[in-house]
Amino acid sequence: MNDLVVKDLTVEYSSGGLLVRPLVKKSLTAEDGQLVVLLGPSGCGKTTLLSCLAGLLTPTRGSIRLGGREITRLQGEALTDYRRNQVGVVFQAFNLLPSLTAHGNVVAPMALAGARRSVASARATELLEQVGLGDRMNHRPGAMSGGQQQRVAIARALVHNPPLVLADEPTAHLDHVQVEGVLKLIRSLAQPGRIVVVATHDDRVTNLADIVIELVPSHAGVDREPEDVELTDGEVLFRQGDPGELVYVVKSGGVAIYQELFDGGERHIDVLKEGRYFGELAPLLRLPRSASARAAGDTVVTAYTLRRFRNAFPGSAMQAPGLNGAPHEDG
Amino acid sequence: MLAITIADLRFRARQFLIAVVGAGTVFAIALLLAGMVNSFYAEIDRTVASADADGWVVPEGTSGPFTSIGGMPQSTVGAIAKTAGVTAASGMVISLQSPDRGALGLERIMMIGADPKGFGQVVPDEGEPVRKNNEAVADRRLDLDIGDTFVLGGRTFHVVGLVEGMTMLGGTANAWLSLKAAQGVLFGGEPIVTSILVKGDPEQLPPTLKLMSNEEVAVDSLKPMKDAVDSVNNSKYLMWVVAAIIVAALIYVSALQRTRDFAVLKAVGASSRALFVGVALQSVIVTALGALLAISCAWMLKPAYPVPVEVTQAAYVSLPLIAIGVGILSSLVALRRAVNVDPAIAFGAGQ
After folding, report:
1. Taking CB atoms and an 8 Å limit, are B344 and A51 in contact across chains?
2. Which residue from B7, B274, B342 is facing A99, i.e. has the nearest CB?
């Protein structure tokens, strides 16, 4: 079976010395012929996940298996072969080569793979006709609309008839007329022998999907009673890069807010005492935590959902983030 | 990769054209400088060879027949001719002079006086050789035709023959006179010679004289210009470097502009080697076109130089080869960018 199985995928890198974890233990499974939509706002790790699936980025931990074959351990020629033949990518900004015609752009991957020119040319012609660009083959990208360029990019991704097609924000640069055509085309690609993974923040795309994976689950509608969390001295409440669901208020003791550095060190930010709240921006903006929190001495914090926090603290930064001097350590 | 490379060249044609013109102009200057250096050597070799001698006898203490004047009694010529190993000897008077060409004014020449009946006289390309004491054979750079006259040492000389490329000191025209006439100009008619040409290999010479081979004479004749020749020669190498910098700058800027293209190509399966070959190919095409432009430019610019410029066939043939070398070298600056580009950049996020 041509299944795609992603397990506990974690990506970490350094940004200005800080440890950034755009993906933390992400898992997904897709069966042959399915259209998977990765949904989430900018910065939630969609592109990072696509890069890993495309074999362009090696994850820090975790596994990606396509048709039973482990992808994360591929190197050298095997990796190049995977990129050439097993995966087709439709990039966000089309990323066509401006110097080549539509036909030339589709021929390029085959030529690079050593295909005979006549074979590559015939295949490119066939694919461009398939995506409705039979009459635009000799136009350069600069002379084509966004929708047409996206179609060329799709044709290019299909040249080797890969079992995995990835599309990054395929509707981002298109007007509504073009969106319709491109989405229909993408939907038609998901068929036996091929899995299509689309990363988008456009929730209209979810209607076409077989599977929708929200990379940052929305907690806005979640509601439950506030609950106390007891922490022993040094115990970590959450880590930088973790998804953020709750807002915390220090009930007793103290909480140290710090940033984790890529080299293993830490950068101290603040120690919050009784009555101070923290962790509000991550659930509010649906971003991962941008700092870590741990108990400074034996501590009790109260965990609130967004709704409960708003009700309990009507004058807080939740209403006007950043205006009341409260620590905004995890925006 | 070739098709992608060519397409990119066409796409950025204006940018590459500027580099071709820049590199071509610099290559042309390098070619002309090479021709200039070559002419400094070639004019000496031709002048020395025109004497048709095996060796040159000059007074001990003088540097060479063309670079210093040391007089010897003309009777020495006969004595040398009788020395064992010598089959023939001929006296010469050589010195720098400035004849008056009338309306054309004064011009510096290398006066070479030799016995019209002996050897050492040049065979003219046009006209007749020197037979009389008021006749001269001159290089065309003196701007005189057959039948024209010039005044030297108060004597009037008629040009009876012309030669081409017979100069010294970087374009100073040679003028051959009879030995007697040259003695009249330089020594007031005294029977003195400044050097003696010999055929054969003298077994022994008087201690006051020394024998110089044609090669030694050539080396010595270049000495007054050595610093200038070395400077020109070094400038030629500098021109190669300038051309390399021009092309390298273009290729580097082009590589910067194409970072995303490289990332996309890598993402769709291009190897790092293929990307570098593409960059190197562009660089080589630019320099090769520059070399072709340089060859035609050199032809046009040659007459603008007051000194002789003799670009050899070898220089014309080697220029494209050097240009290819320069192109490959230049492309190395973009090597890291092409090879190390992160294919994830194609996604736009770069992470």
Report:
1. yes
2. B7
Q: Which residue of A has its CA nearest to B9?
A: A99
Rounded-to-integer distance, Cα A196 and Cα A167, Å? 8
Instruction: Name the band, by pLDDT with cuts 50, 70 and 90, for residue A16.
Output: confident
Alpha helices in chain B (DSSP H): 2-11, 13-50, 75-81, 179-187, 214-222, 226-257, 259-267, 272-301, 313-331, 335-340
Question: Given an 8 Å threshold on Cβ–Cβ distance, is B347 in contact with A168?
Answer: yes
Block mean pLDDT (10 aa), chain B, length 351: 86 90 90 91 95 96 93 95 94 96 94 93 96 96 96 95 94 96 95 96 93 96 91 89 86 85 84 85 89 89 84 87 85 80 70 35
Sort A192 into a burial class: Cβ within 10 Å, 0-12 / 13-18 / 19+: exposed
| Cα separations in angstroms, B119 against A137, A159, B65, B190 | 79, 82, 16, 20
Tell me if chain B has a CB within 8 Å of the CB of A10: no
Is residue B265 a contact partner of residue B346, using CB atoms and an 8 Å limit?
no
Tokens 């020197």 identify what position? Answer: B130
A104 touches chain B (CB under 8 A): yes
Closest partner residue to A112 (CB to CB) among B1, B10, B347 is: B1
Question: What pLDDT sits at residue B56?
Answer: 97
Does residue A328 have a pLDDT over 70?
no
pLDDT band at A218 (very low <50, low <70, confident <90, very high): low
- Choose among B265, B267, B271: nearest Cβ to A54: B267
Using an 8 Å CB-CB cutoff, list residues of chain B that contact chain A: 1, 3-4, 7-8, 10-12, 260-261, 263-271, 274, 342-344, 346-349, 351
Note whether A92 contacts B343, CB cutoff 8 Å.
no
Q: What is the per-residue burial (b if ≥16 Cβ within 10 Å, else e) of B198-226?
A: bbbebeebeeebbbbebeebbebbbeebe
User: Alpha-carbon distance A90 to A110, whole Å?
Assistant: 16
- Largest pairwise CA distance in chain A: 75
Search chain B and give the residue with CA nearest A54. Answer: B267
For residue A331, what pLDDT band results from cuts at 50, 70 and 90? very low
Which residues in chain B are closer than 8 Å to A98, comparing Cβ atoms?
11, 261
**Confidence (pLDDT) at B350:** 38
- Say if pTM beats, i.e. exceeds, 0.90: no
Number of other residues whose CB lies within 10 A of the CB of residue A295: 22
User: Which candidate in A97, A100, A118, A160 is best for mutational testing of the B interface (most B CBs within 10 A)?
Assistant: A97
Instruction: Locate B278 and state its tokens.
Output: 């593409």
Angle at B52 between CA B51 and CA B56, to 5 degrees: 65
